[in-house]
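Re: that backbone. Tokens:
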């Protein structure tokens, strides 16, 4: 989908704001709904949902708060922490393992 987005970025019917402007999120959400409807194995997600997932994956990959804040374009790291961080199943498992290792030592 990202490659398709790049391919169609300058298409006049796809990007009404101009070539240097991002797509309208509503348009992208409609595209996602179409893709999901055609591919039942894909869970429903919005474009903004990808932003949340992207942020969580960055943290899981070891990115710092400052790096994620900058990548998302937030002026204040509090926004990043309050809205975009999610404790994933893997992070919960790692936290439990850290405690177990500590208690065993």
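Recovered sequence:
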């Amino acid at each position: 989908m990202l490659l398709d987005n790049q391919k169609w970025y300058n298409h006049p019917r796809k990007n009404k704001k101009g070539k240097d402007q991002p797509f309208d999120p509503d348009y992208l959400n409609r595209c996602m709904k179409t893709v999901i409807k055609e591919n039942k194995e894909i869970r429903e997600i919005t474009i903004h949902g990808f932003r949340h997932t992207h942020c969580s994956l960055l943290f899981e990959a070891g990115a710092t708060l400052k790096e994620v804040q900058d990548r998302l374009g937030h002026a204040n790291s509090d926004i990043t922490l309050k809205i975009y961080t999610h404790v994933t199943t893997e992070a919960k498992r790692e936290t439990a393992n850290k405690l177990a290792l500590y208690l065993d030592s």
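DSSP finds six helices and no strands in the chain. The two ends are 48 Å apart (CA to CA).
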